[in-house]
Structures are given as structure tokens and as C-alpha cells.
Specification:
Length: 167
């Protein structure tokens, strides 16, 4: 039984890896990315202490942007840079989000949590506050990192995962 399972699973994993590799977005190493409003942008990064948030901060600074890192615990964030401002806040506290939002040109959200085993509304309530503050401060652009399966990315799930969520 195990042998049959492995005989099916291994080719499936190989084909899937190949297809996902083929569909991966093209890298633009070394090429300037057009943003349509000049090369320097004032970016608010939410979730800046997280795994991807730290990468976003570093890459935005490397590209010469003015970065505001929105963090709950500034003591957890050790990066220093002339173009970096660290702001203490909580996405669930609207006033702190709006205060950090003023004067920004764009928002990157890498908001996430590790509370997988009980319900919480950090993402939905947090995003509601981010959008409300963007409207209030007239900030036009948002890039939000969510999870595979949200919105139209559901089409990129492999059929095994899809069939476990939508039997
Ligand atoms: N990493 C991946 O491979 C991957 C893949 C697909 C999708 N994603 C999605 O991308 C997002 C970020 O992933 P990640 O791995 O970088 O997450 P992470 O390491 O867990 O970081 C989450 C960030 O959100 C912050 N945060 C949580 N609650 C907050 C609150 N109430 N107010 C302000 N900040 C708050 C955390 O701050 P604290 O440090 O204070 O907790 C942390 O900086 C998640 O939504 C995740 O599902 C990640």
C-alpha cells in the first residue's frame, strides 16, 4: 500500500514542482522597476519585525526609499538607517495606524500571526484599519502579502491541496 502511495506521490510532487517552477514570476534583477511616480517613495511597512517584513524593509532601503517600519515592539527591531523611521503601533489601534500613515505614498503589509489554533481577527480588523487610514490620509497604493488561496490565487493551489479544502 505504502509503495503504491509513494509511486503516485513522487511523480505527482515532481510534476507539481516543475509546473510551479515554470509559473514562478520572472525576476527583474538589476533592472529598475517603474513605479510611475518617480524613483523615491515613502513607504509604510506593516509587520516589519516579521520574516518577510524585515526583507521588505531591507530591500526598500536598498532601493533608496524612505521607510517607516510599523512595529509593536521597537526593541525587537535592530536595524538602523538614515532613511528608516521606526514607529510603535498596533494595527488593531486605529489611531496609531493613522498617525503612521500620514505623508506616506504607499503601504506594504506583511501582517501575520502565529495564532493558528484559535480564531482571531488580526488580519481582517487590522486590514480594515489600514484601509481606513489610507483613505483618511489619501494614500493611494497598497501591496498586501496574504496567503496562497486568498482571492484569485486559489487557482495556483495544486489539486491535492484544493481538494482537501474544497472536497
Ligand atoms: N513566510 C512565508 O513563507 C509566507 C508565505 C505565504 C504567505 N505568507 C503570509 O505573509 C504574511 C507575513 O508572513 P511572515 O511569515 O512574514 O509573518 P510573521 O513572521 O509571523 O510576521 C508577522 C508580522 O505581523 C506583525 N503583527 C502581528 N500582529 C500585529 C498587530 N496587531 N499590530 C502590528 N503588527 C502585528 C508581527 O509583529 P510582532 O513581531 O510584534 O509579532 C510581525 O511583524 C502572513 O500573512 C503570512 O500568512 C507568508
Amino acid at each position: 500500500m505504502l509503495r503504491i502511495f509513494l509511486l503516485v506521490l513522487i511523480p505527482y510532487a515532481l510534476v507539481l514542482s516543475f509546473l510551479l517552477w515554470r509559473k514562478a514570476p520572472a525576476r527583474r534583477d538589476g533592472k529598475a522597476v517603474s513605479r510611475g511616480w518617480g524613483n523615491r517613495v515613502r513607504i509604510l511597512i506593516i509587520g516589519a519585525t516579521g520574516g518577510t517584513g524585515r526583507q521588505l524593509v531591507q530591500q526598500a532601503l536598498d532601493q533608496g526609499h524612505q521607510v517607516t517600519a510599523f512595529v509593536r515592539g521597537p526593541s525587537k527591531f535592530h536595524l538602523e538607517h538614515a532613511n528608516l523611521r521606526i514607529v510603535k503601533g498596533d494595527v488593531l489601534d486605529y489611531a496609531s495606524v493613522e498617525s503612521a500613515m500620514r505623508g506616506q505614498s504607499a503601504v506594504l503589509s506583511a501582517l501575520g500571526h502565529k495564532r493558528f489554533f484559535y480564531p482571531n481577527k488580526i488580519q481582517s480588523d487590522g486590514m480594515r484599519n489600514i484601509l481606513r487610514a489610507m483613505k483618511a490620509c489619501d494614500v493611494p497604493r497598497l501591496i498586501c502579502e496574504t496567503a496562497l488561496g486568498i482571492g484569485n490565487s486559489v487557482g495556483r493551489w495544486d489539486c491535492l491541496t484544493r481538494s482537501s479544502f474544497f472536497p
